[in-house]
Write a structure and sequence with these properties.
The structure holds 3 protein chains of 3 kinds.
Chain A: E1 8-12, H1 22-26, E2 31-33, E3 39-41, E4 54-57, H2 62-71, E5 77-80
Antiparallel strand pairs in A: 1-4, 1-5, 2-3
Chain B: H1 2-32, H2 41-68, H3 76-80, H4 89-110, H5 112-115, H6 117-124, H7 127-141, H8 148-168, H9 177-180
Helix pairs in contact in B: 1-2, 1-7, 1-8, 2-4, 4-6, 4-7
Chain C: H1 32-39, H2 51-58, H3 70-80, E1 94-99, H4 108-115, H5 117-131, E2 135-140, H6 145-154, E3 161-165, H7 175-184, E4 206-210, H8 211-223, H9 225-229, E5 239-246, E6 252-257, E7 260-261, H10 262-268, E8 276-281, E9 287-289, E10 295-296, E11 310-311, E12 317-322, H11 327-340, H12 347-364, H13 370-383, H14 391-405, H15 407-414, E13 417-418, E14 423-424
Parallel strand pairs in C: 1-2, 1-4, 2-3, 5-12, 10-11
Antiparallel strand pairs in C: 5-6, 7-10, 8-9, 8-12, 13-14
Helix pairs in contact in C: 2-3, 5-8, 11-12, 11-14, 12-13, 12-14, 13-14
The chains are: A alpha+beta, B mainly alpha, C alpha/beta.
């Protein structure tokens, strides 16, 4: 993450998420998958554990993040302010 | 002129049946969460959506000529209200029901962000009713549906969808099924 | 569970106001008359008096577990609400007293509702007046409702408070689950992007406090912030209820000042210091500590751990583990229970907690090498912060504190021995 901080955050609504893997395809730098296939902030992305549901995004990732929000089959994603 | 319209409507109907089948198969594949070797999940999802929209276009190609065709005597009401037609009313009615269902599935698909997941999912399930109705309509209404190639095509489409449906309800359907049942830890790797 | 009340003698209460216990001053199962006799009528305040300012000055924190500042939540609802003259009753703010007490080791809320229901009611009414609230609820387990209904029937000013039967589930007391229960009848936590203050029940500004917090609010409204601060420390003012459970002569609820020494609390409950191996503070979502030298409180210290000399009281549970009992085995049982209490909405919790419970069970049974400890750490990292509510976070906190506090036991277990129970595993 740049010194200026994240451009935005990708909020994951865990009550909706089913780990179908589309967002991890679209945002390979920001997200990996956990043991069960759910999106996981890439190593080093998230400092505090409380932020694990709001993954910081760089400006360059915003376009892909918007696609992820649109394509998420479970409507589990939302872009929030930094 | 009427002959040309008639033929165009029939061919569009056949193409549409193939597109619908493709859409259903891709929808099931998408639901599994599994990518294909050459196609990532996102591409499969977009393909599922675009083939479905193409199926709508071919449905228009299938229905519009019949409205223009004086011989077919189909009017706008017949297109949306089933079982009123003058020619093979039952089989045509099945097609009409399939059209209505398709309209609902596509509209809720396009508006799913506004409607929410519950409505989208509930209506999307109707696809499983729409497909057999559309097939029954094409077999029942088809001018030469009993010809060998037509029967063979119908059997192939049936087998494909039935196989996909059987896979859909099997225990290992989801890409994540094994990992979530406590199977060996899986490294999902970089997508 | 028993509802015995014991109280620490509290010094320094101003004359004319309840000495001794603050919350139980009216005695056991106090009716409205006894309540008024003990606490006096609610005073009429001048125009320049504001409950929000008194709460801010009091430093009261939530007593349900999170320990969030009570006035901040209050002020957030105050800001979010529309002036009453513009809002119909259905658009006004919603106040909820949360007595669900899903934490299995806690019974202080049940004790409070049984003995001092009128304090909780007073707290709700005082805030309702200040916030122009439209709807008031008390949410509690089925066993609490008859006494609460009787208390409400005793007074003419509380007829509009509705009672809600809370399901008996660990996560039913999460504040977003309470709002969900009101809306859908199912007490499931939900993804809250904003605060409940900005849109809770039916999108209305919603204030959910633990019942004990409401009781303290009632007292701050009566006697003011200065009186409240006469007990406790500057960082952790006032008193709090704690449920003392586990290896104790008898399980009791104590009212203790903020910043109390843990060994003092144990002594008040009749527990001999040298008989204690460790104490779980805060309940199943809390932390294991060795009690010696540890202070209960430090409300303002986020994540205040034993290394800082203070431990956050969380849901007010002080659970004693006697010498000769294995802390790892006790923790493994708790994690297994917590895994079973997942609402099964959020994947990392639904699958991660059982995996964590399995790893803790293997550790307790001494099956595995050093990689097992790493696996517990890895699974904790996969679960923490990845849920709509704090159920996974709380579970990870419990596990992490067990690995710290019982670090010696972990080494023994990995070698196939348990030094506490003194045998081979």
């Amino acid at each position: 993450m740049s010194v200026a901080g994240p451009a935005a955050r990708l909020h994951i609504d865990w009550t909706m998420c089913d780990g179908r893997g589309l967002c991890t395809e679209l945002l390979p730098e920001a997200l990996t998958r956990d043991d069960w296939g759910y999106p996981l902030a890439a190593p080093g992305r998230v400092r505090a554990r409380a932020d694990a549901s709001n993954v910081p995004l760089t400006g360059a990732e915003l376009g892909a993040a918007v696609d992820a929000v649109k394509l998420c089959p479970l409507l589990a994603l939302r872009i929030t302010g930094p | 002129m009427d002959d040309a319209l008639w033929a165009f409507a029939r061919v569009s109907g056949l193409v549409d049946m193939v597109l619908l089948t493709g859409s259903v198969l891709l929808g099931i594949l998408t639901r599994s969460g599994r990518p294909l070797p050459a196609l990532p999940r996102v591409s499969l999802m977009l393909l599922h959506r675009n083939i479905s929209l193409l199926a709508v276009v071919f449905l228009v190609f299938h229905v519009a000529p019949l409205l223009l065709d004086a011989y077919a005597r189909v009017n706008l009401v017949d297109v949306v209200v089933p079982f009123l037609g003058s020619y093979k009313a039952f089989w045509q009615g099945l097609g009409t029901v399939a059209l209505d269902l398709m309209a609902a599935v596509v509209a809720t698909g396009l508006l799913r962000h506004r409607l929410g997941r519950r409505t989208f999912r509930a209506v999307h399930w109707l696809s499983y009713a729409m497909w057999p109705l559309a097939l029954a309509h094409s077999v029942g209404n088809g001018t030469d549906a009993t010809s060998a190639p037509a029967v063979a095509a119908a059997v192939v489409l049936c087998v494909a969808v039935l196989a996909a449906a059987a896979w859909r309800v099997s225990a290992g359907f989801l890409e994540t099924a094994d990992a979530r049942r406590g199977g060996a830890r899986r490294d999902w790797g970089r997508p | 569970m028993s509802a015995a009340i014991a109280t620490e003698p509290l010094a320094g209460a101003p004359s004319g106001r309840p000495a001794g216990s603050r919350l139980f001053a009216a005695g056991a199962a106090a009716g409205h008359a006894a309540h008024l006799a003990a606490y006096g009528p609610v005073p009429r305040h001048g125009r320049d008096w504001s409950l929000a300012q008194e709460l801010e000055a009091s430093g009261l924190t939530g007593r349900g577990g999170a320990g969030f500042s009570a006035w901040r939540k209050f002020a957030a609802v105050d800001r979010a609400r529309r002036p009453a003259r513009y809002a119909g009753r259905a658009g006004r703010s919603v106040l909820i007293a949360n007595g669900a007490e899903g934490e299995p080791l806690s019974f202080k809320d049940a004790t409070l509702l049984h003995n001092a229901p009128h304090l909780v009611i007073d707290g709700l009414l005082a805030a309702a007046e200040a916030l122009g609230a439209g709807s008031l609820f008390i949410y509690a387990g089925a066993a609490r409702l008859p006494a609460l209904a009787a208390a409400l029937a005793e007074r003419s000013d509380a007829r509009h408070i509705a009672l809600l039967e809370a399901p008996d589930a660990f996560v039913a007391g999460q504040s977003s689950a309470v709002v969900s229960f009101l809306e859908t009848g199912r007490a499931l936590p939900r993804d809250v992007a904003g605060r409940l203050a900005d849109g809770g029940f039916q999108g209305r500004p919603t204030l959910v406090h633990n019942v004990e917090t409401w009781a303290h609010i009632a007292l701050v409204a009566r006697y003011g912030a200065g009186w409240f601060r006469a007990e406790g420390t500057a960082e952790d003012p006032g008193t709090r209820l704690v449920s003392v459970t586990g290896d104790v002569p008898s399980e009791v609820v104590l009212e203790v000042p903020g910043g109390s020494r843990l060994d003092g609390v144990l002594a008040s409950a009749g527990v001999a210091g040298d008989a204690v191996s460790a104490v779980l503070v805060g309940g199943y979502h809390g932390r294991w500590v060795r009690p010696s030298g540890v202070v209960l409180g430090g409300g303002g210290v986020p994540g205040g751990g034993p290394e800082s000399g203070s431990v956050r009281p969380g849901a007010g549970v002080v659970h004693v583990l006697a010498r000769g009992r294995c802390g790892l085995a006790a923790t493994a049982r708790m994690v297994e229970y917590l895994a079973g209490q997942s609402a099964r909405q959020c994947g990392p919790c639904m699958f991660g907690l059982p995996a964590l419970a399995g790893a803790m069970e293997r550790l307790a049974a001494g099956r595995g090498g050093p990689e097992l400890v790493r696996e517990v750490g890895r699974l904790s990292g996969l679960v923490a912060g990845r849920g709509a509510c704090h159920h996974p976070d709380g579970t990870v906190q419990l596990v992490g504190s067990a690995l710290e506090t019982f670090a010696d036991d972990v080494r023994w277990h990995l070698a196939g021995q348990c030094q506490e129970t003194g045998g081979a595993l």
